[in-house]
Structures are given as C-alpha cells and as structure tokens.
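User: I'm putting together notes for a lab meeting next week and I want to include a structural view of one of the chains we've been expressing. I don't have a solved structure, so I'd like a prediction I can at least talk through. The sequence is below, exactly as it appears in our construct file.
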Amino acid sequence: MGLGMFEIKTIALFIITAIAEIVGCYLPYLWLVQNKSPLLLIPAAISLALFA
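Assistant: Thanks for the context. Below is the predicted structure for the 52-residue chain, given as structure tokens.
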C-alpha cells in the first residue's frame, strides 16, 4: 500500500503552506517584539502571499 502521486503532491503542498504561514507570522513578530529590522516585513508579505 504505497502513496500515489496525488497523495505525495497533497502532502508536499501542505508542508509548503505550513512553512509559509509560520515564516509569514514569525517575521513580523521579530520586527514588533524583538525590534528587528522592518525589512523583515518584505519576506513576510511574500511568504503570506505564497500561503494564500
């Protein structure tokens, strides 16, 4: 009982969207709470756009 191509694509998409959401939320946290560079908002926005 192996995984078909559809299941592999679904799992990969789930992992990619999960990582994109985490990165997209963590980078603004670094900017707001830990006083990091506001330039972190640029990759955060790109990551959240990928997530959406």
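A couple of points you could mention at the meeting. The chain has a mean pLDDT of 92. Residues 2 and 8 are 10 Å apart (CA to CA).

User: Perfect, that's what I needed.
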